[in-house]
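Consider this today:
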Amino acid sequence: KDLQRQFGTSVSGRFTSLYLDGLDAYSQSSDFDVLQKKLDEWLRVAEAAASSAIMIPEKNVDYLQKLLQLAPTESQLLLFQLYRHAPGFSQLYDILLRTEETTAVVLGKMFNSGANQIYDALSDKGGLVRSGLLSVQEMPLRIEPISPFLRATLYKEVDNEESFMNNFLRPMRPKATTASLARLDDRDRDILLRLLAHSPTKEQSLNSLVYGPKSVDKRDMLARLFDKTDIDGWEVIAKKVPPSDLAAWAYIAQHYLEREEPDATLVIDHAEQILTSRRNQLLEIFGFSSEDDMEEPPIESDEEQASDEGLTASSIRCVWLTDHAKS
């Protein structure tokens, strides 16, 4: 009855008993053979019910899989992370994934994959970590919960991929109001337009930095410039997006434009928050010296460095905005 209250009246007694058997089996024995047999039986019943309908998150993860070219195991892991924190199931998975050994057994059995495939999918070179969709600790293997904001986005019902991508980016349009008419001076305007006239490649990316205090509406300033010069400008949607999710939003937007609008220019605000592991190194990719009386902080993690490297290697023109030149 408790599980039916959590998951709906369609949860059968057979499914419920297998769920409880799984908890029982592992709490009473650390025998992996017993655990695998219970998992086999549970999965046969659970998959039969689950395959009868395509859930909203599965459709949205499928859009991401095709866009980011995720391996099947990577998309399965992303779905697993979405579902594993549902009430009831979270208790089971917290028990099963308590140690690195059981994590490999459970995930390998669920996805019909070897341990090496699981480790590759969760490595800092895999698409999930590079994109910022998942945060992973490799030794010992730990997968952090998906952020509530990303989870809500992936649970949002949409009609098609274009509607789904509206969560991440949009065309730039000047504001209707004229309250803020900040402009680049002629010299900076000329430099930026000359830069944007070049065509980047995967081997040679093109990243520009526009700095200004918070009082300057840098986004609208660029929107007006692009409007006058017929530049196809797009922007990453950053409003209400938590800082921890901005890297994933930018990565997804970059890949979408690379495929659909390769001549576009993408504007990415809050550069100092997105390029998390670079901090001062952020300035170096724009030609700044790190000798300006600033201590170089240590790189926080391999996964953050991998995410930064992915973000700054896009084959579309990227204009980064910040009001923290010395973060």
